[in-house]
Design goal:
Structural class of chain A: alpha/beta
Oligomer: heterodimer
Helix content of chain A: 25-40%
Number of strands of chain B: 0
Strand content of chain B: under 5%
Structural class of chain B: mainly alpha
Radius of gyration of chain A: 20 Å
Shape of chain B: globular
Number of strands of chain A: 16
Largest sheet of chain B: none
Largest interface: A-B, 30 and 20 residues
Strand content of chain A: 15-25%
Radius of gyration of chain B: 16 Å
Distance between the termini of chain A: 19 Å
Protein backbone atom coordinates (compact mmCIF):
# COMPACT_ATOMS: atom_id res chain seq x y z
CA UNK A 1 0.00 0.00 0.00
CA UNK A 2 1.29 3.42 -0.91
CA UNK A 3 2.17 5.78 1.93
CA UNK A 4 -0.44 8.30 2.99
CA UNK A 5 0.82 11.88 3.13
CA UNK A 6 -0.16 14.53 5.64
CA UNK A 7 0.47 18.22 6.25
CA UNK A 8 2.08 18.94 9.61
CA UNK A 9 3.40 22.49 9.33
CA UNK A 10 2.50 25.80 7.68
CA UNK A 11 4.31 29.07 7.07
CA UNK A 12 3.57 32.15 5.00
CA UNK A 13 4.85 35.53 3.85
CA UNK A 14 2.02 37.47 2.25
CA UNK A 15 0.74 40.96 1.53
CA UNK A 16 -1.79 40.51 4.36
CA UNK A 17 0.61 39.21 6.93
CA UNK A 18 3.85 37.44 7.64
CA UNK A 19 3.12 34.35 9.67
CA UNK A 20 0.11 32.02 9.57
CA UNK A 21 -1.69 33.58 12.49
CA UNK A 22 -1.72 37.12 11.05
CA UNK A 23 -2.42 35.85 7.55
CA UNK A 24 -5.41 33.75 8.54
CA UNK A 25 -6.90 36.44 10.75
CA UNK A 26 -6.63 39.00 7.93
CA UNK A 27 -7.94 36.49 5.37
CA UNK A 28 -11.04 35.63 7.40
CA UNK A 29 -11.68 39.36 7.82
CA UNK A 30 -11.51 39.78 4.05
CA UNK A 31 -8.70 42.28 4.39
CA UNK A 32 -7.10 43.38 1.12
CA UNK A 33 -3.35 43.40 0.71
CA UNK A 34 -3.50 45.31 -2.56
CA UNK A 35 -2.00 48.80 -2.59
CA UNK A 36 -0.67 51.39 -5.01
CA UNK A 37 2.84 51.09 -6.41
CA UNK A 38 4.15 54.61 -5.97
CA UNK A 39 7.33 54.24 -7.95
CA UNK A 40 9.68 51.90 -9.75
CA UNK A 41 12.38 54.45 -9.05
CA UNK A 42 13.61 56.04 -11.29
CA UNK A 43 10.92 54.94 -13.77
CA UNK A 44 7.72 56.96 -13.28
CA UNK A 45 4.48 55.02 -12.96
CA UNK A 46 2.82 57.01 -15.76
CA UNK A 47 3.93 54.51 -18.37
CA UNK A 48 2.46 51.56 -16.51
CA UNK A 49 -1.16 50.73 -17.31
CA UNK A 50 -1.58 49.01 -13.99
CA UNK A 51 -0.33 50.74 -10.85
CA UNK A 52 -1.42 48.40 -8.07
CA UNK A 53 -0.04 45.21 -6.55
CA UNK A 54 -0.16 42.92 -3.54
CA UNK A 55 3.09 44.00 -1.94
CA UNK A 56 4.75 42.54 1.13
CA UNK A 57 5.45 45.60 3.25
CA UNK A 58 8.40 46.25 5.52
CA UNK A 59 10.11 42.95 4.89
CA UNK A 60 13.69 42.66 6.10
CA UNK A 61 15.13 39.17 5.98
CA UNK A 62 17.51 39.79 8.88
CA UNK A 63 14.52 40.15 11.18
CA UNK A 64 13.78 36.47 10.58
CA UNK A 65 16.96 34.75 9.44
CA UNK A 66 20.10 35.16 11.48
CA UNK A 67 22.68 33.73 9.08
CA UNK A 68 24.42 34.47 5.82
CA UNK A 69 21.79 32.45 3.92
CA UNK A 70 19.36 35.33 3.61
CA UNK A 71 21.98 37.70 2.29
CA UNK A 72 23.02 35.56 -0.63
CA UNK A 73 19.63 35.18 -2.25
CA UNK A 74 17.02 37.30 -3.95
CA UNK A 75 13.82 38.56 -2.38
CA UNK A 76 11.69 35.58 -3.51
CA UNK A 77 14.08 33.10 -1.90
CA UNK A 78 14.21 35.22 1.25
CA UNK A 79 10.42 34.93 1.43
CA UNK A 80 10.81 31.18 0.94
CA UNK A 81 13.40 30.93 3.71
CA UNK A 82 11.16 32.79 6.15
CA UNK A 83 8.05 30.75 5.31
CA UNK A 84 10.03 27.50 5.53
CA UNK A 85 11.45 28.44 8.90
CA UNK A 86 7.99 29.13 10.28
CA UNK A 87 6.53 25.92 8.85
CA UNK A 88 9.32 23.76 10.24
CA UNK A 89 8.91 25.28 13.69
CA UNK A 90 5.14 24.83 13.39
CA UNK A 91 5.59 21.15 12.50
CA UNK A 92 7.77 20.49 15.52
CA UNK A 93 10.17 18.61 13.26
CA UNK A 94 13.65 18.54 14.70
CA UNK A 95 16.23 18.12 12.00
CA UNK A 96 18.79 16.88 14.52
CA UNK A 97 16.58 13.83 15.11
CA UNK A 98 15.87 13.16 11.45
CA UNK A 99 17.81 11.24 8.84
CA UNK A 100 18.71 14.27 6.69
CA UNK A 101 18.67 12.22 3.49
CA UNK A 102 14.98 11.53 4.08
CA UNK A 103 14.03 15.22 4.17
CA UNK A 104 13.55 16.87 0.78
CA UNK A 105 12.81 20.37 -0.45
CA UNK A 106 10.58 21.07 -3.45
CA UNK A 107 10.07 24.68 -4.44
CA UNK A 108 7.66 26.13 -6.95
CA UNK A 109 8.84 29.42 -8.46
CA UNK A 110 7.68 31.15 -11.59
CA UNK A 111 10.01 34.09 -12.06
CA UNK A 112 12.79 33.65 -9.50
CA UNK A 113 15.51 36.19 -8.71
CA UNK A 114 14.31 39.04 -10.85
CA UNK A 115 15.25 41.85 -8.45
CA UNK A 116 18.95 41.27 -8.89
CA UNK A 117 18.43 40.01 -12.42
CA UNK A 118 16.94 43.26 -13.63
CA UNK A 119 19.46 45.40 -11.76
CA UNK A 120 22.48 43.63 -13.19
CA UNK A 121 21.17 43.54 -16.74
CA UNK A 122 20.39 47.25 -16.59
CA UNK A 123 23.84 48.10 -15.28
CA UNK A 124 25.62 45.96 -17.83
CA UNK A 125 23.87 47.62 -20.75
CA UNK A 126 24.15 51.12 -19.34
CA UNK A 127 27.75 50.98 -18.16
CA UNK A 128 29.06 48.33 -20.57
CA UNK A 129 31.37 46.94 -17.92
CA UNK A 130 31.11 43.16 -17.99
CA UNK A 131 33.62 42.87 -15.14
CA UNK A 132 31.21 44.78 -12.89
CA UNK A 133 28.48 42.12 -13.12
CA UNK A 134 27.96 40.93 -9.56
CA UNK A 135 29.59 37.59 -8.73
CA UNK A 136 26.33 36.48 -7.16
CA UNK A 137 24.30 37.18 -10.29
CA UNK A 138 24.33 33.59 -11.57
CA UNK A 139 23.68 31.78 -8.26
CA UNK A 140 20.92 34.28 -7.46
CA UNK A 141 19.02 34.15 -10.74
CA UNK A 142 19.34 30.40 -11.19
CA UNK A 143 15.78 29.33 -10.58
CA UNK A 144 16.67 26.76 -7.93
CA UNK A 145 18.40 29.27 -5.65
CA UNK A 146 15.50 29.02 -3.19
CA UNK A 147 15.40 25.22 -3.02
CA UNK A 148 19.17 25.21 -2.59
CA UNK A 149 19.35 27.78 0.17
CA UNK A 150 16.40 26.30 2.10
CA UNK A 151 18.08 22.89 2.13
CA UNK A 152 21.32 24.50 3.31
CA UNK A 153 19.55 26.42 6.06
CA UNK A 154 18.07 23.22 7.50
CA UNK A 155 20.47 20.50 6.41
CA UNK A 156 17.83 18.76 4.30
CA UNK A 157 19.73 16.29 2.10
CA UNK A 158 16.85 14.52 0.40
CA UNK A 159 15.47 15.26 -3.08
CA UNK A 160 15.96 18.93 -3.91
CA UNK A 161 13.88 20.19 -6.80
CA UNK A 162 12.43 23.31 -8.30
CA UNK A 163 9.23 23.20 -10.30
CA UNK A 164 8.62 26.10 -12.64
CA UNK A 165 5.25 26.04 -14.35
CA UNK A 166 4.42 29.75 -14.04
CA UNK A 167 1.28 30.41 -11.98
CA UNK A 168 0.76 26.78 -10.98
CA UNK A 169 4.37 26.10 -9.90
CA UNK A 170 3.78 25.38 -6.25
CA UNK A 171 0.60 23.37 -6.81
CA UNK A 172 2.79 21.07 -8.87
CA UNK A 173 5.43 21.25 -6.13
CA UNK A 174 2.80 19.93 -3.70
CA UNK A 175 1.91 17.17 -6.15
CA UNK A 176 5.50 16.19 -6.77
CA UNK A 177 6.13 16.10 -3.03
CA UNK A 178 3.09 13.84 -2.62
CA UNK A 179 4.52 11.45 -5.23
CA UNK A 180 7.96 11.62 -3.65
CA UNK A 181 6.67 10.56 -0.21
CA UNK A 182 4.17 8.05 -1.59
CA UNK A 183 6.94 6.33 -3.50
CA UNK A 184 9.05 6.15 -0.36
CA UNK A 185 11.81 8.44 -1.58
CA UNK A 186 11.47 10.75 1.44
CA UNK A 187 9.74 10.87 4.81
CA UNK A 188 9.36 14.64 4.80
CA UNK A 189 9.28 17.23 2.03
CA UNK A 190 9.40 20.96 2.70
CA UNK A 191 7.12 22.32 -0.03
CA UNK A 192 7.58 25.99 -0.81
CA UNK A 193 6.03 28.34 -3.32
CA UNK A 194 7.74 31.69 -3.72
CA UNK A 195 7.88 34.65 -6.07
CA UNK A 196 8.76 38.32 -5.71
CA UNK A 197 8.85 39.95 -9.09
CA UNK A 198 6.97 43.19 -8.70
CA UNK A 199 9.94 44.66 -10.53
CA UNK A 200 10.05 47.28 -13.29
CA UNK A 201 10.58 44.86 -16.17
CA UNK A 202 8.38 41.95 -15.10
CA UNK A 203 5.56 44.27 -14.13
CA UNK A 204 5.84 46.05 -17.48
CA UNK A 205 5.75 42.69 -19.21
CA UNK A 206 2.48 41.72 -17.55
CA UNK A 207 1.10 45.17 -18.39
CA UNK A 208 2.03 44.63 -22.04
CA UNK A 209 0.27 41.27 -22.01
CA UNK A 210 -2.84 43.26 -21.00
CA UNK A 211 -3.19 40.73 -18.23
CA UNK A 212 -3.36 43.14 -15.30
CA UNK A 213 -6.22 45.14 -13.87
CA UNK A 214 -6.00 48.80 -14.86
CA UNK A 215 -9.38 50.26 -13.94
CA UNK A 216 -8.83 50.41 -10.21
CA UNK A 217 -5.53 52.26 -9.99
CA UNK A 218 -7.17 54.85 -7.75
CA UNK A 219 -8.90 52.25 -5.66
CA UNK A 220 -6.35 49.45 -5.24
CA UNK A 221 -8.32 47.37 -2.76
CA UNK A 222 -11.05 46.95 -5.37
CA UNK A 223 -8.74 45.83 -8.18
CA UNK A 224 -8.64 42.09 -7.48
CA UNK A 225 -12.25 40.92 -7.90
CA UNK A 226 -12.49 37.32 -9.09
CA UNK A 227 -15.89 36.25 -10.44
CA UNK A 228 -17.25 39.81 -10.19
CA UNK A 229 -18.89 41.37 -13.22
CA UNK A 230 -16.50 44.33 -13.17
CA UNK A 231 -13.23 42.39 -12.98
CA UNK A 232 -10.66 43.49 -15.55
CA UNK A 233 -7.51 41.47 -15.07
CA UNK A 234 -5.34 40.09 -12.34
CA UNK A 235 -3.34 42.01 -9.76
CA UNK A 236 0.26 40.99 -9.26
CA UNK A 237 1.23 39.84 -5.81
CA UNK A 238 4.34 38.53 -4.10
CA UNK A 239 4.98 36.19 -1.23
CA UNK A 240 5.75 32.64 -0.20
CA UNK A 241 3.95 29.73 1.36
CA UNK A 242 5.34 26.57 2.91
CA UNK A 243 3.64 23.28 3.77
CA UNK A 244 5.50 20.49 5.53
CA UNK A 245 4.41 17.23 3.95
CA UNK A 246 5.30 13.94 5.54
CA UNK A 247 4.23 10.35 5.51
CA UNK A 248 1.37 9.67 7.92
CA UNK A 249 3.47 6.97 9.55
CA UNK A 250 6.36 9.34 10.14
CA UNK A 251 4.02 11.99 11.56
CA UNK A 252 2.40 9.43 13.84
CA UNK A 253 5.72 8.14 15.08
CA UNK A 254 6.78 11.58 16.24
CA UNK A 255 3.26 12.42 17.48
CA UNK A 256 2.99 15.43 15.19
CA UNK A 257 -0.12 17.57 14.94
CA UNK A 258 -1.76 16.80 11.57
CA UNK A 259 -3.63 19.55 9.70
CA UNK A 260 -4.91 17.47 6.82
CA UNK A 261 -4.09 14.70 4.39
CA UNK A 262 -2.85 15.39 0.87
CA UNK A 263 -5.00 12.83 -0.89
CA UNK A 264 -4.62 13.36 -4.62
CA UNK A 265 -3.02 15.29 -7.43
CA UNK A 266 -3.26 15.61 -11.17
CA UNK A 267 -1.14 17.40 -13.75
CA UNK A 268 -2.24 17.94 -17.33
CA UNK A 269 -1.57 20.16 -20.30
CA UNK A 270 -4.21 21.71 -22.50
CA UNK A 271 -1.64 21.75 -25.31
CA UNK A 272 -3.58 24.72 -26.53
CA UNK A 273 -2.15 28.22 -26.05
CA UNK A 274 0.70 29.89 -24.12
CA UNK A 275 -1.54 32.24 -22.16
CA UNK A 276 -5.20 31.57 -23.05
CA UNK A 277 -7.19 28.73 -21.47
CA UNK A 278 -9.48 26.54 -23.56
CA UNK A 279 -12.84 28.23 -23.32
CA UNK A 280 -14.85 25.01 -23.08
CA UNK A 281 -13.28 24.20 -19.69
CA UNK A 282 -13.01 20.52 -20.59
CA UNK A 283 -9.34 20.20 -19.70
CA UNK A 284 -9.79 21.92 -16.33
CA UNK A 285 -12.70 19.62 -15.51
CA UNK A 286 -10.63 16.64 -16.61
CA UNK A 287 -7.76 17.70 -14.34
CA UNK A 288 -10.01 18.02 -11.27
CA UNK A 289 -11.54 14.63 -12.09
CA UNK A 290 -8.13 12.97 -12.31
CA UNK A 291 -7.05 14.47 -8.99
CA UNK A 292 -10.20 13.16 -7.29
CA UNK A 293 -9.67 9.73 -8.83
CA UNK A 294 -6.09 9.78 -7.54
CA UNK A 295 -7.51 10.51 -4.08
CA UNK A 296 -10.05 7.71 -4.40
CA UNK A 297 -12.87 10.24 -4.05
CA UNK A 298 -15.83 11.31 -6.16
CA UNK A 299 -17.04 14.81 -7.10
CA UNK A 300 -19.97 14.37 -4.72
CA UNK A 301 -17.58 14.39 -1.77
CA UNK A 302 -15.97 17.79 -2.36
CA UNK A 303 -16.96 20.51 0.15
CA UNK A 304 -14.62 23.36 -0.74
CA UNK A 305 -12.71 24.58 -3.77
CA UNK A 306 -9.86 27.05 -3.46
CA UNK A 307 -10.23 28.37 -6.99
CA UNK A 308 -7.39 29.50 -9.21
CA UNK A 309 -9.55 32.57 -9.93
CA UNK A 310 -7.12 35.27 -10.94
CA UNK A 311 -9.76 37.90 -11.75
CA UNK A 312 -9.28 37.77 -15.52
CA UNK A 313 -12.38 37.86 -17.69
CA UNK A 314 -11.80 34.55 -19.45
CA UNK A 315 -10.00 32.58 -16.76
CA UNK A 316 -12.63 32.87 -14.04
CA UNK A 317 -15.47 32.00 -16.43
CA UNK A 318 -13.66 28.93 -17.74
CA UNK A 319 -12.98 27.68 -14.22
CA UNK A 320 -16.65 27.98 -13.22
CA UNK A 321 -17.70 26.31 -16.46
CA UNK A 322 -15.40 23.41 -15.60
CA UNK A 323 -16.71 23.23 -12.02
CA UNK A 324 -20.27 23.04 -13.36
CA UNK A 325 -19.32 20.32 -15.84
CA UNK A 326 -17.70 18.11 -13.25
CA UNK A 327 -19.79 18.74 -10.16
CA UNK A 328 -23.14 19.24 -11.91
CA UNK A 329 -25.89 19.91 -9.35
CA UNK A 330 -23.37 19.85 -6.52
CA UNK A 331 -21.55 22.85 -7.99
CA UNK A 332 -23.76 25.26 -6.05
CA UNK A 333 -23.42 23.33 -2.81
CA UNK A 334 -19.63 23.57 -2.69
CA UNK A 335 -18.05 26.48 -0.86
CA UNK A 336 -15.67 28.34 -3.17
CA UNK A 337 -13.21 31.12 -2.47
CA UNK A 338 -10.48 33.00 -4.29
CA UNK A 339 -7.40 33.74 -2.21
CA UNK A 340 -6.15 36.06 -4.98
CA UNK A 341 -8.99 38.46 -4.16
CA UNK A 342 -7.06 39.26 -0.97
CA UNK A 343 -3.40 39.12 -1.92
CA UNK A 344 -3.34 39.28 -5.71
CA UNK A 345 -1.68 36.68 -7.86
CA UNK A 346 1.54 35.65 -6.20
CA UNK A 347 2.54 33.58 -9.27
CA UNK A 348 4.82 30.77 -8.10
CA UNK A 349 3.60 31.17 -4.52
CA UNK A 350 -0.09 31.03 -5.42
CA UNK A 351 -0.47 27.25 -5.25
CA UNK A 352 1.21 27.00 -1.86
CA UNK A 353 -0.73 29.91 -0.34
CA UNK A 354 -3.99 28.57 -1.81
CA UNK A 355 -2.99 25.20 -0.40
CA UNK A 356 -2.56 26.77 3.03
CA UNK A 357 -6.05 28.32 2.78
CA UNK A 358 -7.42 24.88 1.81
CA UNK A 359 -5.69 23.12 4.67
CA UNK A 360 -6.87 25.76 7.14
CA UNK A 361 -10.44 25.41 5.83
CA UNK A 362 -10.26 21.69 6.62
CA UNK A 363 -8.62 22.30 9.94
CA UNK A 364 -10.73 25.21 11.23
CA UNK A 365 -14.02 24.81 9.35
CA UNK A 366 -13.70 28.39 8.17
CA UNK A 367 -13.56 29.63 4.60
CA UNK A 368 -12.13 33.05 3.88
CA UNK A 369 -14.21 35.58 1.92
CA UNK A 370 -13.78 36.36 -1.76
CA UNK A 371 -13.20 40.10 -1.61
CA UNK A 372 -15.00 42.37 -4.07
CA UNK A 373 -17.45 39.71 -5.19
CA UNK A 374 -19.99 42.51 -5.24
CA UNK A 375 -21.90 41.91 -8.42
CA UNK A 376 -21.69 38.26 -9.45
CA UNK A 377 -20.96 37.80 -13.12
CA UNK A 378 -23.69 35.50 -14.45
CA UNK A 379 -21.01 33.73 -16.49
CA UNK A 380 -19.30 32.62 -13.32
CA UNK A 381 -21.74 32.82 -10.46
CA UNK A 382 -21.67 30.02 -7.91
CA UNK A 383 -23.86 29.86 -4.82
CA UNK A 384 -20.89 28.88 -2.68
CA UNK A 385 -18.99 32.11 -3.37
CA UNK A 386 -19.28 34.81 -0.76
CA UNK A 387 -17.93 38.21 0.20
CA UNK A 388 -18.16 37.03 3.80
CA UNK A 389 -16.34 34.34 5.68
CA UNK A 390 -18.22 31.03 5.77
CA UNK A 391 -18.33 28.37 8.42
CA UNK A 392 -18.97 24.83 7.40
CA UNK A 393 -17.57 21.39 7.93
CA UNK A 394 -15.04 20.73 5.19
CA UNK A 395 -14.04 17.11 4.76
CA UNK A 396 -12.59 17.39 1.27
CA UNK A 397 -11.00 20.43 -0.34
CA UNK A 398 -9.73 20.94 -3.88
CA UNK A 399 -6.98 23.35 -4.89
CA UNK A 400 -6.92 24.50 -8.50
CA UNK A 401 -3.94 26.09 -10.23
CA UNK A 402 -3.42 26.80 -13.91
CA UNK A 403 -0.30 28.15 -15.51
CA UNK A 404 0.94 29.87 -18.63
CA UNK A 405 2.23 27.33 -21.06
CA UNK A 406 -1.17 25.63 -21.02
CA UNK A 407 -0.66 23.57 -17.86
CA UNK A 408 -3.19 22.64 -15.17
CA UNK A 409 -2.84 21.25 -11.66
CA UNK A 410 -5.36 20.13 -9.07
CA UNK A 411 -4.56 18.96 -5.55
CA UNK A 412 -7.04 17.28 -3.22
CA UNK A 413 -6.81 17.59 0.54
CA UNK A 414 -9.01 15.77 3.02
CA UNK A 415 -9.49 15.54 6.73
CA UNK A 416 -6.91 13.19 8.13
CA UNK A 417 -8.19 9.93 9.58
CA UNK A 418 -8.26 10.14 13.35
CA UNK B 1 53.93 31.82 -21.87
CA UNK B 2 52.96 35.28 -20.77
CA UNK B 3 50.74 33.64 -18.23
CA UNK B 4 53.64 31.80 -16.64
CA UNK B 5 55.81 34.89 -16.46
CA UNK B 6 53.01 36.82 -14.85
CA UNK B 7 52.41 34.17 -12.24
CA UNK B 8 56.09 34.13 -11.39
CA UNK B 9 56.11 37.87 -11.01
CA UNK B 10 53.19 37.73 -8.67
CA UNK B 11 54.67 34.99 -6.56
CA UNK B 12 57.81 37.02 -6.32
CA UNK B 13 55.75 40.04 -5.37
CA UNK B 14 54.30 38.25 -2.39
CA UNK B 15 57.57 36.67 -1.35
CA UNK B 16 59.31 40.01 -1.30
CA UNK B 17 56.56 42.09 0.08
CA UNK B 18 54.82 39.72 2.45
CA UNK B 19 55.18 40.22 6.19
CA UNK B 20 57.35 43.30 6.16
CA UNK B 21 55.13 45.33 3.96
CA UNK B 22 52.18 44.77 6.21
CA UNK B 23 53.78 47.01 8.77
CA UNK B 24 53.92 49.81 6.28
CA UNK B 25 50.39 49.60 4.91
CA UNK B 26 48.54 52.73 3.99
CA UNK B 27 46.17 53.25 6.91
CA UNK B 28 43.34 54.48 4.67
CA UNK B 29 43.41 51.51 2.33
CA UNK B 30 43.86 49.06 5.15
CA UNK B 31 41.02 50.55 7.14
CA UNK B 32 38.65 50.54 4.18
CA UNK B 33 39.32 46.90 3.45
CA UNK B 34 39.09 45.86 7.09
CA UNK B 35 35.88 47.83 7.53
CA UNK B 36 34.33 46.08 4.54
CA UNK B 37 35.29 42.73 6.01
CA UNK B 38 34.05 43.68 9.45
CA UNK B 39 30.70 44.69 8.02
CA UNK B 40 30.38 41.39 6.19
CA UNK B 41 31.42 39.35 9.21
CA UNK B 42 29.33 41.49 11.56
CA UNK B 43 32.22 42.21 13.89
CA UNK B 44 34.32 45.11 15.10
CA UNK B 45 36.86 46.40 12.49
CA UNK B 46 39.40 46.49 15.32
CA UNK B 47 39.21 42.73 15.43
CA UNK B 48 40.18 42.32 11.78
CA UNK B 49 43.96 42.07 11.57
CA UNK B 50 46.17 42.27 8.50
CA UNK B 51 47.80 39.00 9.52
CA UNK B 52 44.54 37.10 9.41
CA UNK B 53 43.97 34.45 6.77
CA UNK B 54 40.76 35.09 4.85
CA UNK B 55 39.66 31.47 4.93
CA UNK B 56 41.33 29.93 7.97
CA UNK B 57 40.97 32.86 10.37
CA UNK B 58 37.98 34.79 9.07
CA UNK B 59 36.02 31.85 7.70
CA UNK B 60 35.44 33.31 4.25
CA UNK B 61 34.64 30.64 1.69
CA UNK B 62 35.86 31.05 -1.87
CA UNK B 63 32.60 32.74 -2.89
CA UNK B 64 32.88 35.26 -0.06
CA UNK B 65 36.43 36.09 -1.15
CA UNK B 66 35.15 36.71 -4.67
CA UNK B 67 32.45 38.99 -3.27
CA UNK B 68 35.04 40.90 -1.26
CA UNK B 69 37.28 41.39 -4.28
CA UNK B 70 34.29 42.56 -6.32
CA UNK B 71 33.68 45.33 -3.80
CA UNK B 72 37.35 46.20 -3.68
CA UNK B 73 37.48 46.49 -7.46
CA UNK B 74 34.65 48.95 -7.29
CA UNK B 75 35.97 50.95 -4.36
CA UNK B 76 39.46 51.38 -5.77
CA UNK B 77 38.50 51.41 -9.44
CA UNK B 78 40.57 48.33 -10.21
CA UNK B 79 40.27 45.21 -12.29
CA UNK B 80 41.86 42.25 -10.58
CA UNK B 81 42.80 39.57 -13.14
CA UNK B 82 42.11 35.91 -12.29
CA UNK B 83 45.78 35.03 -12.06
CA UNK B 84 46.26 37.54 -9.23
CA UNK B 85 43.70 35.84 -7.01
CA UNK B 86 46.01 33.00 -6.02
CA UNK B 87 48.16 35.12 -3.76
CA UNK B 88 45.38 36.97 -2.02
CA UNK B 89 44.94 34.79 1.02
CA UNK B 90 45.39 37.12 3.98
CA UNK B 91 43.99 40.55 4.78
CA UNK B 92 47.53 41.91 4.48
CA UNK B 93 47.95 40.42 1.01
CA UNK B 94 44.85 42.17 -0.16
CA UNK B 95 45.93 45.49 1.36
CA UNK B 96 49.44 45.32 -0.14
CA UNK B 97 48.08 44.21 -3.47
CA UNK B 98 45.71 47.17 -3.64
CA UNK B 99 48.47 49.57 -2.61
CA UNK B 100 50.83 48.23 -5.23
CA UNK B 101 48.17 48.45 -7.92
CA UNK B 102 47.27 51.99 -6.99
CA UNK B 103 50.92 53.07 -7.00
CA UNK B 104 51.29 51.60 -10.47
CA UNK B 105 48.19 53.09 -12.04
CA UNK B 106 48.85 56.72 -11.11
CA UNK B 107 51.32 57.91 -8.55
CA UNK B 108 48.64 59.48 -6.36
CA UNK B 109 45.33 58.25 -7.67
CA UNK B 110 42.64 59.41 -5.27
CA UNK B 111 40.30 56.82 -3.85
CA UNK B 112 36.93 57.91 -5.07
CA UNK B 113 34.39 55.54 -3.65
CA UNK B 114 33.76 54.04 -0.26
CA UNK B 115 33.55 50.27 -0.11
CA UNK B 116 29.97 49.23 -0.25
CA UNK B 117 28.52 46.50 1.85
CA UNK B 118 29.38 43.04 0.60
CA UNK B 119 25.81 41.95 0.84
CA UNK B 120 24.89 40.82 -2.67
CA UNK B 121 21.51 42.43 -3.09
CA UNK B 122 19.24 44.86 -1.38
CA UNK B 123 16.10 43.59 -3.04
CA UNK B 124 13.60 45.31 -0.82
CA UNK B 125 14.93 48.71 -1.79
CA UNK B 126 14.45 48.27 -5.50
CA UNK B 127 10.87 47.20 -5.51
CA UNK B 128 9.75 48.98 -2.40
CA UNK B 129 7.15 51.39 -3.59
CA UNK B 130 7.96 54.22 -1.25
CA UNK B 131 11.70 54.44 -1.70
CA UNK B 132 12.09 57.59 -3.70
CA UNK B 133 15.75 57.81 -2.85
CA UNK B 134 18.48 55.95 -4.59
CA UNK B 135 19.62 53.07 -2.50
Amino acid sequence: MRARVVVTGLGVVSPIGIGISDFWKAALAGQSGISAITSFDPIPMDGYRSKVAGQVRDFAVERFIDSVHGERVDRYAQFGLVAAKEALADSGLQMAKENPHRVGVIVGAGMGGMVMGEREITQLYQQQKPHRVHPNFIPVITLNSASGIIAMAHGAKGPNLTISTACSSSAHALGQALHCIREGRADVVIVVGADASITPLVFAGFCSLRALSSKYNDNPEKASRPFDRLRDGFVMGEGAGTLILESAAHAKKRKARVYAEVAGYAATSEAYHMVIPREDGLEVAHTMKLALADAGLTPSQVDYINAHATSTTIGDAVEVKAIRQLFKSRADKIAVSATKSLIGHTLGAAGAIGGIASVLALHTGKIHPTANYDDPDPACALAGLSRSAQERRVKVAMLNAFGFGSNNAAVVFKQAAK
Amino acid sequence: MNQINKTNQITAFYENDGENREMATDPTISLKIRTALAEYLKRDPERILVTQHLRDDLGLDSMAVIELLYRIEEAFDLQIPDQDLVGLTTVGHVVSYVEKRLEKSASSAPIKKPIKSMKPAKPAKQSKPKSKKKS
